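The pair is listed for reference:
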Amino acid sequence: MITPRGDIMSKRTKSVFFILLFLFAFYSTVSHVTNLSLSDLDEWMAAKFNNKETRDVEALIYKEQELSEKGLKAKNAPQTYVSSAVVEAVQLLEESIDLSQYPSREVVATGYTAGYESTGKTPEHPAYGVTFSGVNVKRDLYSTIAADLDMFPLGTILFIPGYGYGVVADIGGAIKGNKLDLYFPTVNDVYQQWGKQTLDVYVVQEGTGEITEEDLENLNQDESLQVFRSQIRQ
């Protein structure tokens, strides 16, 4: 059955009329309750809508600023890096030596410090920083290292790739067989610059069973190696 076009238009007209009537009644009621004129009410609703938009925009801007500040703080936060100067100096030192002339030994090398975490001693301890040989721990061109004296007697000079020259001056309860402990000034240095590695080390000179502060100082004053010294001591 087809509805006449005139009837459809009549229904639409009635719908529009009732909607307008409802809106007029709504405005009239609100105006009566709030003592606002229809024009005042229109202005109030427009302002309300605009205020909401303003608040939304302000909230968005604040959020962006907050995220930007957080990103800036993260960017400017202090970062910890391994000293590239030390790594580069050791690499250059290694390139200047013909390691093939020395016998090699495979070892497991770890890092240690003079601190409580490695030795059980605090700075107040009278033997803090003093090795088994009696010399003080040192990180230099020739650094103090710990070894099993049955394998490497005191005073033995090793070249450890990635670390440099090490002079056996210390021992350790867990340093048995093919194990070495390499001295670093801080725990961060141990973790960032070394950790634990299995590698070949080179026996530059076998020790006599002793090493003194004077011996160590003379080694570190080798004029041909001074170009590397300041970087390694950082």
